[in-house]
Design brief:
heterodimer; A: alpha+beta; Alpha-Beta Plaits; 4-stranded mixed beta sheet; two-stranded antiparallel sheet; 6 helices; 12 strands; B: mainly alpha; 2 domains; two-stranded parallel sheet; 9 helices
Chain lengths: 216, 292
């Protein structure tokens, strides 16, 4: 079993939107649609009744979570949405009838109707790149070097991001361009690992947030 | 989320069709209603399903691929499509059998089963864990209550139009149906009061740093006294339940004259109420995790 996913170190994310822009550029995401978007969480008081400067804030990059039990796949009447062998959820545009029930069934609001093609689209985990051995574009171009890509079944330690000091952020199929999480990500505990609200869909993406309170 | 008007019409038609099919089947089982009434009910019902079918085409972006919609058995849309075909088949069987005489008991039971499953799959399509206001039994209860309400008033109106001997009986059923819908709405309101969301998002907009993405507030207050109050109190409660109930009450009894005018007005009111209920349903259909 393989379950490709993205790990984001939220203590490194600076909210630069590079992932969002890179995704739009590589995948030709229509204006108004976001396959990857940044949510600002906070400022929130650090404790009950706290005021400035006792506040905290983090940025949360959100896209399709390529869930273990994707409800979007279950509700799709045409099998246009399917879960692939690598664990990613993909849409066959030839089969989509644009009923948008998958949009309703997704807890995270990350599916969009492409109003030119009249089919639903979302993050593909840059399937065209990862199948060739590369990193998803949002991982490759993360401005804060906060994003890592890998197989959840192999553990978060196996996730990799772009090399720290390389000239090229991504070399498709080239392991040399990668840096493992243990080389870049500061130590984290089990309690620092979070995922988006799970309503039975088992989201695959993971987020690391240390010291701050995970808001849910 | 925004009101999906084609789906409003589609679910409305399926509820009306399911309710009417159940009522005419029940009448056939109990030996009430003439063959003329049964024929008329079946024809009207086929027309209602066709209207619903046309409405749903307006929701699909690629309607030419509609037959792909039978392709996935876990999908609520596939269930609906299958049940629509089965309901149409049942009604055609009714018409064939009625040519030979009265509906046999097995056909009546078949009709009731198809009607119940049709209404169930209609409700079940929208039961999504991602949308807390939809993910509850009160939604199912209200869809069944809508079907009973529109089915009973529809049967009453049809019986009144053709002066069928079942007119008074259907009028009485309509009173029960309106009371059942009122109970279902109260349960829905109680249920909505307990809906919870995990909302952490704010707009990524420095000019509005503290503006929440969605004003979740209390959903029950939105419905009872907020932006949805007019649709709820005037649409669902007064027009959808109270007026039909009064109309049915005024014409109760066997010697009711001119019942068809009251019945037609009542069924139109019930339809308006059901539409208002669905607009509230969509308005409350926010995702469990709210952001832009």
């Amino acid at each position: 079993m393989t379950q490709y996913a993205i790990l984001t170190d939220l203590n490194r994310c600076v909210g630069c939107l590079a992932c969002s822009v890179a995704c739009k550029s590589v995948n030709d995401v229509p204006i108004g649609n976001f396959w990857t978007k940044i949510l600002r969480v906070g400022p929130n008081p650090k404790f009950e009744g706290a005021d400035f400067p006792d506040i905290e804030m983090y940025f949360l990059p959100v896209g399709c979570q390529h869930c273990g039990k994707p409800e979007c796949v279950a509700v799709c009447p045409t099998r246009a949405s399917t879960k692939h062998a690598n664990g990613s959820v993909q849409i066959d545009k030839e089969k989509c009838i644009g009923c948008q029930f998958c949009v309703m069934a997704c807890p995270y609001g990350v599916r969009y109707l492409n109003e030119e093609e009249m089919v639903v689209e979302k993050c593909t985990l840059c399937n065209q790149i990862i199948e060739a051995g590369g990193l998803p574009q949002c991982v490759a171009q993360c401005g804060g070097r906060a994003r890592y890509f890998g197989d959840l079944e192999q553990g978060l330690e196996s996730f990799k991001g772009p090399e720290l000091y390389g000239d090229e952020y991504v070399t498709v199929g080239g392991e040399l361009s990668r840096a493992a999480t243990d080389g870049l990500v500061k130590q984290f505990s089990e309690g620092d690992i979070h995922k988006l609200p799970d309503v039975g869909n088992d989201p695959s993406f993971r987020y690391i947030l240390r010291k701050f309170k995970w808001q849910g | 989320m925004e009101t999906q008007w084609p789906l409003v019409i589609f679910t409305l038609c399926l509820c009306l069709a399911g309710g009417l099919l159940f009522m005419q089947s029940l009448m056939a089982l109990l030996g009430k209603g003439s063959a003329k009434f049964q024929k008329m009910a079946a024809i009207v019902n086929i027309a209602v399903i066709v209207i619903g079918g046309i409405a749903v085409f307006f929701h699909l972006q690629h309607w030419e691929r509609i037959f792909n919609g039978f392709g996935h058995i876990t999908s609520g849309i596939t269930h609906e499509l299958i049940m629509v075909v089965l309901a149409l088949a049942a009604l055609i069987i009714f018409l064939v059998l009625l040519k030979k005489g009265e509906l046999p008991k097995w056909a009546a039971i078949l009709g009731m089963v198809v009607a119940v499953v049709l209404v169930f799959v209609t409700a079940n399509s929208y039961n999504m864990a991602a949308r807390p206001a939809w993910n509850n039994f009160a939604w199912y209860l209200n869809i069944f209550a809508d079907a009973y309400l529109m089915g009973a008033f529809g049967a009453w109106a049809l019986a009144g139009i053709i002066d069928d001997e079942s007119c008074a009986w259907n009028g009485k059923q309509s009173i029960f149906a309106a009371i059942a819908k009122a109970v279902a709405v109260v349960i829905y309101a109680i249920n909505i009061a307990t809906v919870k969301f995990a909302s952490v998002g704010h707009y990524f907009d420095p000019t509005q740093p503290t503006k929440p993405v969605v004003e979740t507030g209390s959903y029950i207050s939105r419905m009872l006294s907020g932006d949805l109050a007019l649709a709820f109190w005037l649409g669902v409660v007064i027009i959808g339940i109270v007026v039909p109930l009064i109309l049915a009450w005024l014409k109760r009894g066997k010697d009711a004259k001119d019942a068809e005018y009251f019945a037609i007005a009542a069924v139109l009111c019930a339809i308006v109420g059901a539409i208002c209920f669905r607009t509230i349903f969509f308005a409350l259909g926010s995702s469990v995790f709210l952001f832009y």
